[in-house]
Amino acid sequence: MNVLTIQPRGGFMLRGITHPVCRDLMMSATFLKKRGHTVRVWDRCVDRTDFTDPKSGFHADAAVFFISQSSSVKDAIAVSARLRSNGTVIVWADMVALLGADLPDTHLYCDYLLLGEYCFTADELLRALQSGDDVSGIAGIAVSGKGGFTKTEKRPLPAFSELYPTDWTLIDVEKCFRRFQSCKKMLYLNASTGCPYACGFCSTPACYGQRRKRPFGHVLSEIDFLVRNHGLDGINFSDELLLFTDEELAAMKACRERNGNSFVWGGETRPQLLSDATLQKMYDAGCRWLLFGLESGSETVRARLSKGYDPARVAEVVDRCTELGISTFGSFIVGFPGETPQDLRETVRFASSLDLDAFLFNYFVMIAETPLYEEAVKSGRFCFRSILEYDSLVNTDKLDGNFSRIPYRELATVKAYFDFLTITRKKKTAAKDKAGAQFLKKAINTAAEYLRGSPKEAAAGLWSVAKRGVSVAYYPLAHPGIVKKYGLHNVNRK
Length: 494
Ligand code: SF4
Description:
Strand order of the largest sheet: 2-1-3-4-5-6-7
Bound molecules: iron/sulfur cluster
Number of domains: 3
Number of helices: 18
Shape: globular
Helix content: 40-55%
CATH topology of the largest domain: pyruvate-formate lyase- activating enzyme
Radius of gyration: 23 Å
């Protein structure tokens, strides 16, 4: 069957500026190709080919959309409609499609959903469609009908050892490289998916299940291929929880050495899982940045989120990383349901006690299939009514619904202040990579990328960069009382 696998575009992925190559798309496209389908990958963030145009030379019998970002729902809907009019069967997959399965309008835009497992399920579904067989016996799908979806039996997630190493010849790798930290050719790869934790605001456990690791040999063979054929010099692991064993770190170190130590890597993990000895091994194996999801400095809020950690250990890990030369990014969320000014004060105090390279403050957004969403639905406070609404609401950079007990301008002032701090501060201890300067450079690169787009893209992109810049300056200057209330003027800037 001719299959088009699609990453739709939209929001902050416009022109691929922060462009994670969709890991599930790549794994599935590889699998379908190995199983004999003729596969094209259409990454709409970077590929200008119009596969909806019959003149593109590829008629898709089926199109599988991997909608991993809420901001790309509108694009997925528009492209699905165009392909449908050519007689293409429309299949939606990945996190956003999964979260939208129970919304009343999702079935209007696609013919089938893949519910959590994409490789075996897609292959079985496409074969059944090709031969005209009944699909109701295929586990792990939802079939669109007049009143909504009919879901089939649940399908367990397979071990990654049953899949293949990702076939990177399916995409134009060079178009997907991004600049990040010291890297000019950074790409997103993954060594695992899923997470064993259950933080109240996060949909990872519902969408990707428990943590499943890929065979490490697959990961290393892909790195070897990408370094030797494309000059890859950075890997941002898109694992929800990046954690390597000592053996894997030794193998990664050997992989770097055989490739002339030409690449570095980093990813997101939990600081309390890292001993000093592990951090040293990570550095030796090429780790140069780590993102820690810290969320809140308030113990009350963290308890509500089921996200416990020892703040003193977090501070130690951050300092140890700095000594080693690993940049650290701390991610915080403001505006949690029920969060009070006192909770926010504790977050400010905790964040400012850490010698992080960058403070990433985001607004809380309600995401379906999370414990906090279930609570909000049960109490009648909130409920999504449409997948289109999901597209406009789920954006951590703006606040569309304030569930906290803190006025919006106070949340905005704290967020803006830490954005400002990230750009301007000098670390207490000398870091080898200056994240603040990198972020500023990134803003300039982002603006330059937008300018290379169509006039509409350039205008939209520059407007969003300008808005961000203005809010960073405006809120703290316009609200000195809030700066004082949260002790922002005391935040150590050295
Ligand atoms: S926030 Fe991170 S640690 Fe918590 S459940 Fe999600 S992926 Fe796991």
